Amino acid sequence: MKLLILLVFLSLAIFDQFQLVSGDKYDLDKPAFTTILTEFDAKAKKADKKCNLKERLEPLFALPRNLIPDDSGETDFLGKKMAFSYLPNLDFEIGHLFDGKIINGVMQLIKDQLTRLSNERQEVRNFYHFIFDGIFVEPLIFQIARFYDACEKFDGKRINKAHLAKVQNELSGMQTFYNEKVQIITENMRVANQRRSEYIAEVEQIRQQLKEFTKSTKEIRESAKSVYDADHLQTLANILNNLREKQGQLKMALCDVASAVNMYKFKRLLWTQTVMGVQFFLQTQKKSSIFGQCLGI
Q1: Given this model, what pLDDT does residue 105 score?
Q2: Average pLDDT over residues 259-264
Q3: 90 with 207: CB under 8 angstroms?
Q4: pLDDT at residue 67 in the model
Q5: Residue 88 has what pLDDT?
Q6: Per DSSP, what are the bridge partners of residue 31?
Q7: For residue 51, how many other CB atoms are within 10 A of its CB?
Q8: CA 287, CA 82: separation in Å to the nearest integer?
């Protein structure tokens, strides 16, 4: 009986301790910048009751959501993200042209082109995901390296008027950089949307050409011995090469957008250090591995 009471007591103590930890204002799963700006505001008002820096800082810590046109018709976040990054392809239509055929020569070239198109399509999808997350998703505290430790230091830090003056002096430069990046992202996103439309139009045009290339899919499947005209095959290879060019143009446009988003995210971390007066960000974190795809590496 005494053992049971002791176990119950220990369980309650552990539970209470868990509640204290999970209720901490710097919980690991809290939004990083929203949390810091709220705490900064509370500290700032102790130094100056009229301080309104938070209201001026908040708009700079998130990119405008209208940078990405929302015409997907999806209502949930994942649905929007998937619709945003989807690209139509010709894997099914062209892949079935070679059912039962010996693959060599131009046919092998066509299959290789399909593989390259598929790989590059994944790179395009990666860029879309990076851009989408950069605009719509605020990182949580645990997702930023060394940020939780910086939060603990900030928690014990007093903010004085000198610190507020320093942040105030940085505001103009922050706003200028923010406006420049929003303009760059807007312009490059417009180009990317145009390249995407051109790519989709090219896919639809090729689909029509494929219908002319064969009398019917049924005939192709039933006639395993049928031979395609070499000129027609070379035409198809050239068509796919043009599609790769369209997809490559889209990829490079998205790389420009992603690069601007990445620079903004990097700068935002530096701004956070300025607001907190605590250093946590290493500039070696600046480069994302996704940008190797811009260079084809």
Answers
A1: 75
A2: 95
A3: yes
A4: 86
A5: 87
A6: 140
A7: 19
A8: 25
